[in-house]
Design goal:
There is one protein chain. Strand 4 and strand 5 form a beta hairpin. It contains no helices and eleven strands. The radius of gyration is 13 Å and the shape is globular. The chain is about 0% helix and about 50% strand. The termini are far apart. It is mainly β. The strands form two sheets. Strands 2, 4, 5, 6, 9, 10 and 11 form a seven-stranded mixed sheet that branches. The protein has a four-stranded antiparallel sheet with strand order 1-3-8-7, with no helix packed on it.
Length: about 120
């Protein structure tokens, strides 16, 4: 069992940056691939980024490539999402997830955090 807690969301202006963090409980963090997804109000949850157990196998959704960077620190049981050049369309609740592989679909993940709101004003 893994418990995930996201933090770092907030209200920013277009062009600003934010760094999201996701802290995991337990001593098995390094055995999970990690992913970030987001869900805008009234829309489905979409893939943002994923990273393999040791920091490889990194994938990004097309809409965030070149702007967002995913990373992890297994010593701190934490995965990060650095978000630069934010746009209003990035506004969503951002969720981190732990799963069996660096997948770009929700069914590939077994554990989810509660989410953190990111709002980007124009």
């Amino acid at each position: 069992q893994v418990q995930l807690v996201e933090s770092g969301g907030g209200l920013v202006q277009a062009g600003d940056s934010l760094r999201l963090s996701c802290a995991a409980s337990g001593r098995t963090f390094s055995t999970y691939a990690m992913g970030w997804f987001r869900q805008a109000l009234g829309k489905e949850r979409h893939f943002v980024a994923s990273i393999g157990r040791s920091g490889g196998f990194i994938n990004y959704g097309d809409s965030v490539k070149g702007r967002f960077t995913i990373s992890r620190d297994n010593a701190k049981n934490t995965v990060y999402l650095q978000m630069n050049s934010l746009k209003p369309e990035d506004t969503a609740v951002y969720y981190c997830a732990a799963g069996r592989g660096s997948y770009d679909y929700t069914d590939g993940y077994d554990y989810w955090g509660q989410g953190t709101q990111v709002t980007v004003s124009s």
